[in-house]
């Protein structure tokens, strides 16, 4: 469930509200709130450990927890070669959160695609809640020794440690880096893990950094997949950036002007007050009675901070349509102005489910998966 993000704040403490008690967790980078760049105000993602608004269009509900954000440290990287595979143990501590149940909107019974995910027969059983395995899907660009994960203050390459025996934890984040542990090429997944439940998602709310996909396999044999689709994983990074620039209108092309990441419009100064495209969505919003600025619409902040339907409808350009169309993906992004950054990630996602803006889970369109009795989680990291 990724959901709301605003103001760049660096913090190393996560505040989780569990069963009505505020507990401060010194989890380092294991915080689930992504921090938006320039979103103007304290407006976190709706990650799996965050309060999820109730909507009439199919949004789901997660455990009630809140957390403060962290940001990844940028850096540069240069790849050599080498790889190995070890089965490690993970003794990270975390705080137990209340269990919950929820079915995924991404399907539940499709068998694993072995050609992509590889063999799962040797994944060790979890001693905690769920065994996480990180996979190198960089198409040979980086060896296993240069594909890193960070969780709960630990950083390892997958050559050293491809597995994480995930304990229960509130508002967690697992970050991935290519080339070096502080590489500028990085991205993350978000999750809340209860005693017997996994709730999590990939997110594009702030930016695209690396291609990511997740497969959750449960004790009942069901499976759920989210993230970038196979075709996106198969192509080069350069091709993905070029396709983005070709797919979006002129106002969005500069979001892919670098090589580090494709940034979201909500964190881009061109859409902020005084920016070149400050009025991109504000006139449309005004025509349907909203006083939100363009930046507030992309970031679901200000007057839209607690209005899931209102924010989603403006981003998808369906606010002027009958209410029946608000939950119809076939109606989304058909007219300008709209959040074409978000549309691109939906077009290139498994089952067209993605978190392109904070309330993208409205009408069940986000890359959120959840299930009780999880067995293992596969995370594919691509270039």
For the termini, the CA-CA separation is 23 Å
What is the total tally of β strands? 15
Range of helix content: 10-25%
How many structural domains? 1
The averaged pLDDT comes out at: 79
Radius of gyration: 19 Å
Question: Would you tell me the structural class of the helices and strands?
Answer: alpha+beta
Reading the helices and strands in chain order gives EEHEEEEEEEEEEHHHEHHHHEE
Spans with pLDDT under 50 lasting ≥5 residues?
1-110
Main features:
383 residues; alpha+beta; six-stranded antiparallel beta sheet; five-stranded mixed beta sheet
Short description:
The chain has eight helices and 15 strands. The protein is α+β, with helices and mostly antiparallel strands and 383 residues long.
Walkthrough of the structure:
With 383 residues, the chain is α+β, with helices and mostly antiparallel strands. The chain has one domain. 14% of the residues lie in helices and 22% in strands. The longest helix is centred in the middle third of the chain and has 11 residues, at 237-247.
């Amino acid at each position: 469930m990724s959901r709301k993000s605003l103001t760049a704040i660096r913090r190393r403490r996560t505040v989780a509200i569990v069963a009505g008690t505020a507990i401060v967790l010194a989890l380092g980078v294991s915080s689930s709130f992504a921090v938006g760049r320039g979103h103007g105000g304290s407006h976190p993602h709706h990650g799996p450990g965050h309060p999820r608004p109730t909507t009439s269009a199919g949004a789901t509900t997660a455990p009630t927890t809140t957390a403060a954000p962290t940001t990844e440290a940028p850096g540069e990287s240069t790849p050599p070669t080498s790889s190995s595979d070890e089965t490690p143990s993970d003794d990270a501590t975390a705080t137990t959160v209340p269990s919950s149940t929820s079915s995924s909107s991404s399907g539940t019974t499709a068998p694993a695609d072995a050609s992509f995910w590889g063999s799962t027969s040797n994944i060790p059983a979890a001693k905690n809640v769920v065994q996480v395995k990180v996979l190198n899907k960089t198409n040979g660009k980086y060896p296993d020794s240069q594909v890193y994960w960070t969780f709960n203050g630990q950083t390892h390459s997958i050559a050293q440690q491809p597995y994480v025996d995930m304990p229960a934890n509130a508002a967690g984040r697992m970050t991935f880096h290519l080339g070096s542990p502080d590489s500028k090429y990085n991205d993350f997944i978000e999750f809340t893990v209860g005693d017997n439940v996994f709730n999590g998602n990939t997110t594009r709310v702030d930016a695209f950094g690396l291609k990511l996909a997740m497969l959750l396999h449960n004790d009942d044999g069901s499976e759920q997949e989210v993230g970038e689709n196979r075709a996106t994983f198969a192509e080069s990074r350069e091709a993905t950036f070029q396709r983005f620039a070709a797919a979006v209108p002129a106002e969005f092309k500069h979001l892919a002007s670098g090589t580090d990441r494709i940034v979201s419009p909500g964190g881009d100064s061109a859409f902020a007050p005084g920016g070149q495209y400050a009025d991109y969505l504000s006139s449309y919003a005004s025509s349907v009675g909203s006083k939100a600025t363009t930046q507030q619409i992309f970031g679901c902040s200000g007057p839209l901070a607690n209005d899931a339907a209102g924010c989603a409808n403006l981003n998808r350009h369906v606010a002027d349509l009958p209410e029946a169309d608000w939950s119809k993906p076939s109606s989304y992004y058909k007219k300008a102005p709209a959040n074409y950054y978000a549309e691109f990630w939906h077009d290139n996602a498994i089952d067209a489910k993605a978190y392109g803006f904070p309330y993208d889970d409205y009408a069940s369109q986000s890359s959120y998966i959840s299930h009780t009795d999880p067995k293992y989680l596969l995370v594919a990291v691509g270039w």
